[in-house]
Amino acid sequence: MLYKTVEKKILPMYFNEVANGRKRFELRKDVEGIQIGDIIVLREYDGDYTGRSITATVSYVLRNCPEWGLMEGYCIIGF
Q1: Euclidean distance between CA atoms 4 and 37, whole angstroms
Q2: Which own/partner contact pairs does 69-72 have at CB distance under 8 Å and 24+ positions apart?
Q3: How far apart are CA 46 and CA 34, in angstroms?
Q4: Exposure check for the chain: N or C terminus, fewer CB within 10 A?
Q5: pTM: predicted TM-score of the whole model, two decimal places
Q6: How many Cβ atoms from other residues are within 10 Å of residue 30's Cβ?
Q7: Which CATH number does the domain 5-78 belong to among 1.10.760.10, 3.40.50.1360, 2.30.130.30, 3.10.20.310?
Q8: pLDDT digits (tens, 9 = 90+) for 9-56
């Protein structure tokens, strides 16, 4: 299976939570069809890219759970 790399902007307050290990997921629009095993690159963005980034392997993807409040077209990405 071929895995892809997906880059996403992330605001500093969320970037710091990911960097210190307290935040291990992202709620995002499901436009890339991200799958387990894909690489996610979170690039800190504060009006412009800061140069800081975090790279992680996707370990979990949750989709299609309106009963839990996850709207269609969105996913939760765990890493």
Answers
A1: 8
A2: none
A3: 24
A4: N
A5: 0.91
A6: 17
A7: 2.30.130.30
A8: 999 999 999 999 999 999 999 999 999 999 999 999 999 999 999 999
